[in-house]
Amino acid sequence: MPAFNRRRCLGLLARATVLPFAAAPFAARADAGLIRIIVAYPPGGVADATARLLADQLAQRLGVSAVVENKAGAGGAIGLGAIAKAVPDGRTFGFASVSPVALLPHLGGKMPFDPQKDLAPAASVLASPVLLLATPASHAPDFSALLERAREEPGSVRWATAGSAALGHVMLEQIKASAKVDITHIPYKGGGQQINDALGGHFEVLSTNAGPAVIGHVRAGRLRALAAGAPARLAALPDTPTLSELGLPEANRFSVFGLFAPAGTPAAVIERMNAAVNAALNEPQTRQKIEAAGNLPTGGSAAAFARQIQAESQANARIIKKAGITAGS
Predict the structure, then answer these.
(1) Is residue 281 exposed (0-12), middle (13-18) or buried (19+ Cβ within 10 Å)?
(2) Contacts of 7 (CB under 8 A, 6+ apart)
(3) Which of 152, 167, 185, 255 has its CA 20 to 30 A from that of 313?
(4) pLDDT tens per residue across span 202-243
């Protein structure tokens, strides 16, 4: 081969090797073929499973390797704190619910980061509905009957949540204010013991995120679904109305999970990641796996995700101030 042609071919080969990363915003770094997704919760849960499913999809679509790390604690604040402190070079993203950004800052405790300044919302991934379930201790046939009993016998309805200042607690306070009822709050530390006590009829109603095990208890008749905090009725429980349908739109809350980047990450990087997430969520197999766990794929632009977080933060601030909720209440 003549020397000129060899150099030309080698140049073409070099450009073909470099361009996938140089043309993409995920460039200018030592290991451009790797992104890290920090999950703000322990292994084994719905958030962890979804993040790993998403990581596989993103690796294929972005042409990089994607690794998942778990940094749990403080309701997701530790994981997002790690994201806030990461170098904004497009290598590191976090997967978490919006609560550490839109709920925890209003509870009076110290945050390891400034949610408004240190994080950049990249993509909404899923909505995890909150189910309101009647236990064997309740004989109310529907949600309206439950509220009627709460009006007739103030304090007699006991409502269990995953903990003080958790999303379920905020929903309860909103329902109490809107429906003008007196309901006794029973806070738990997490969901495991809460479900066991619910099956034993230790209280009348509980709020908990949807999931295969919870939906299994409903289908088996051990718990009764009265309502759901969700954008729409669930395919798994089509006869269960949302709180919006029941006339309580402000209480129609649900956990939204998404990807966050460190503030300062180039807009082009975030937009490319957002496009990859939306493409992954449009895959039938990905949607089916998310929906099978009782969740709803979301998607949308990064700007829309940021607006949603801001709106939820403002709503939480009003509810928490009015109800006097604190992290220890």
Answers:
(1) buried
(2) none
(3) 185
(4) 999 999 988 888 999 999 999 999 999 999 999 889 999 999
The tokens for 168 are 């379920």
287, amino acid identity = R
pTM over 0.85: no
Residue in the block written with tokens 């003080």: 164
**168: part of which helix (H) or strand (E)?**
helix 167-179
Centroid of chain to Cα 320: 20
Average pLDDT, the chain: 87
Write out the two tokens for 220.
């088996």
Tell me if 227 sits within 8 A of 187, measured CB to CB.
no
Q: Return the HEC string of 184-245.
A: EEEECCCCHHHHHHHHCCCCCEEEEECCHHHHHHHHCCCCEEEEEECCCCECCECCCCECCC
Query: What count of residues does the chain have?
Result: 329
66: part of which helix (H) or strand (E)?
strand 65-70
Interval 170-197 mean pLDDT: 90
- The two tokens of residue 273 are 């990641």
Which conformational region is residue 234 in: left (phi greater than 0), alpha (psi within -120 to 50 degrees), or beta?
beta
Distance CA 167, CA 163 (A): 9
